[in-house]
Amino acid sequence: MIETLSIIVVEKDRDRALLIVDALREAGDYKITVIGEETGLARRIAENRPDLVLIDLRSPSRDVLEELALASGPMDRPVAMFVDRSDTGLTRAAIEAGVSAYVVDGLRPDRIRPVLDAAIARFHMFSRMRSELAATKAALEERKVIDRAKGLIMRAKGIGEEEAYGLLRKAAMDQGKRLIEVAQAIVTAAELLR
Amino acid sequence: MTVTLPLGYIPLVDAAPLIAAAEFGFAEEEGLHLDLHPAASWSMLRDMLDFGQVVAAQMLSVVPVARALGLGGGAQPLETALVLSLNGQVLGVSAPVAARLGAVGFGDAAAAGRAVAGLGGSLRIGVPFPFSMQAELLHYWLDHAAPGVAVEIRTVPPPRMAEALRADEIDGFCVGEPWGSHAVEMAGARLLLPGAAIWSQAPEKVLACRSGWMEERPETAGRLLRAIWRAARWAADEANLTTLAEVLAQPRYLDVPPELIDRALRGRLLVSAQGPEVPVAQFLSLHEGAANFPWRSQAGWIGARLAARFGIAPGGAAEVARATFRSDLFRQHLGPAGAALPRASEKIEGGLERASEVPGMKHPVILARNRFFDGQVFDPALLV
């Protein structure tokens, strides 16, 4: 019988960690441990003797895991980054999704594949959520600046909202600039001249 | 036509040449648009290089050599044709260890070694990455100044250094600025030495590319090297430091107070929270003294140290290591741009008691003082 694969998920955000754990549970029968603390990370991982460690590609703590990849590191079994250096397709998919995996040397690729596939799918979802959130935030910010610029024009020229917006759009078109750029220039100028 | 090049960096003071190249027109002058990608870890930066998300990156000088020797993670061989900085590291201890050390002057590596040896017990010291000049300087210093002291070197991401000190995970650290000053301010740490007090000319960061890229794209590589080299020359000029510190301090780059960066750029350090500021000679070199030239002997020294520690045959290791520092490409691309070119591509590391002239291709080249604290020298000719 093959022993249950032991997986560590390093993730500070509790909700994200739970989502990853759920996805892994669906993918197979694994022993999963979540580490949310950065304190003593290398020691905690070494004590758990995992077969596989999953961590956000952007996590600053990744460099701590590099220590585990050294033969003289705190783990007695050498760890390699990713599945297999030859399987660049899977590695690239993982990188693009924003997940990095540290795998104990000699673990069979067919045992790792389902874990990574599940993690990759989940991390893709995270990065989509992250970029959607960023886009929403940026759109909100732009809206605010445009509204302020509109208000400034309305006050300066004693005109209505629609007319002020029309002037802004015309200026942007004439100068070949984005609306937000013209609005930002007006707001900056107004702050300087205040 | 403008060429866009994706470049990776870590928000540190010694990312200055990359940021200055993008911000002050040096890239533009070469028809380049530098698309700068910050990374949160050295592993991430290395992966970005491996998988072509960036074509070049600020990198720890030890990483290309370690990779060539088959140490650490990553898949692609890396090389460099430009050293971005020498030194800039600080070595410090936690408040409790500082209290036990008593009065040790700042900057005396031998005395600090004796004091540390007198502590007894074992020490846990944090460094940013297992393959870094910080780790190499620490090993060299302890091997030579405090032999027999039991040390456990741990990897701690620099922004976490202060927290790790407070949580009693580590007793000391060796890290680049601004994170040493940060530990002083946030965790009451005391600085013992600048890296320059261990080796006054330790190559700290390099501009790393995937091996072969610079020869596949010689024209682009030439433009990139010139833009960053000129930016480094500008960044080393004292007249520009205030402007440089202001730009580096911006939220999209380092996001720390400009005073911290200004101190590091000028080599003035706050040794303890109570002060005072201490001026440090050769604290950080971005350009002076042929600092940007990738000496084969620098890579040779790193290779020899790694080989000894990881049990690799020294002769072969030196050859493999030397090949990662491409002084030939520096000559090819930066000679015509006016960089001072020494006649030799190797020098005796640790062999200059004071700044001196050495023979150059057109004009003599002035090299900075190059000493190890214990007066030892590394002669690359003795290895092969």
From TrEMBL, chain A:
Specify whether Phosphoprotein is a keyword of the entry: yes
Write the record's keywords in alphabetical order, separated by commas: Phosphoprotein
Coiled coil spans: none
Response regulatory domain segment(s): 6-120
Return the InterPro entries for the record. ANTAR (IPR005561), CheY-like_superfamily (IPR011006), Sig_transdc_resp-reg_antiterm (IPR008327), Sig_transdc_resp-reg_receiver (IPR001789), WH-like_DNA-bd_sf (IPR036388)
Q: Which PROSITE patterns match?
A: ANTAR, RESPONSE_REGULATORY
GO molecular function terms attached to this record? RNA binding
Positions where 4-aspartylphosphate occurs in the chain: D56
One GO term of the biological process aspect: phosphorelay signal transduction system
Specify the ANTAR domain's residue ranges: 126-187
Please identify the protein, giving its name as recorded: Response regulator receiver and ANTAR domain protein
Species source reads: Gemmobacter aquatilis
Automatic annotation (TrEMBL), chain B:
State any GO CC term. endomembrane system
Query: Which key words tag this protein in UniProt?
Result: ATP-binding, Cell inner membrane, Cell membrane, Membrane, Nucleotide-binding, Transport
Which Pfam families does the protein's record reference?
Answer: NMT1_2
Spell out the molecular function terms from Gene Ontology: ATP binding
Q: Which residues form a coiled coil?
A: none
Alphabetical list of SUPFAM superfamilies matching this protein: Periplasmic binding protein-like II
Major localization listed first in the record, in broad terms: membrane
List locations, semicolon-separated.
Answer: Endomembrane system
- Name the InterPro entries on file: NrtA/CpmA_ABC-bd_dom
Name of the protein this chain belongs to: NitT/TauT family transport system ATP-binding protein
